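For practice. Any example?
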Amino acid sequence: MLGNVTSNILFIVEGEEDEGKLLRKLNKVIDSNNIYSIFSFSTTIHEMHKLYIELKEDDFLTLQGLLKENSNDESEKRILSRRYKSIYLIFDFDPHYQKYSADIINDMYNFFNDSREYGKLFLNYPMMQSYRHMSRIPDPNFKLSKVSHSDCYEYKRIVGDESSYTDLNKYNFAVVINFIYHHYSKMNYLLNGKYNCGTIDEYISKNDENLKRLLTLQNTLFGKSSEIYIINTSIFYIIDLLPETFYKKYSNLLFRWIRIIETSI
């Protein structure tokens, strides 16, 4: 557990089914004291671009307010009427989407960069199910695993066939932390050549920059080869909420796993 810390968190997600189930499980396993709400936008990040334009042009507008105006569901309006300490937007990179645009994603990413203002955007490459795209833990093949443009159309099936972690009911503390470790270490390796989670000081000073660099890397790779690295950044919200607590609380576990994982790669 992260400790006796409560936070009012709003998750704005692309779809309720997979995203909602995962977030509820993560919050239960990692921090049962979290107070959170989940709002499903029910479409891709590209369709949210028009809301981004409105927000950018009018400082008095809020994302919650715009979403509330476009909703006819009373339960959704109640969720969007509350005040939140942190807002996280969780969306898929979806390079196979017919309206995919690197420019749009870059614009959105640069704008939604603070969980305590308009919200902080976390992208999943290629989509949400990437968090469990591992055959085992530790998985030595995950370090450089990629997915092609054509595979994105069947990505959910591919993950279902290749992952050993399709049953959320079996997720526990160790499994969740290993997911985070694998994905964060992979990002750090791709960008900085080091397969580990780094230190708390490195996280605080470089994490936002690293996430932007990762997006640039993925856009560049996709433009050249129609491939992207498999990586899920949405689970990083757990570190983002309480980075110091995360690194202190889990340091012994992480360092124990580092030796196992690095020796198997």
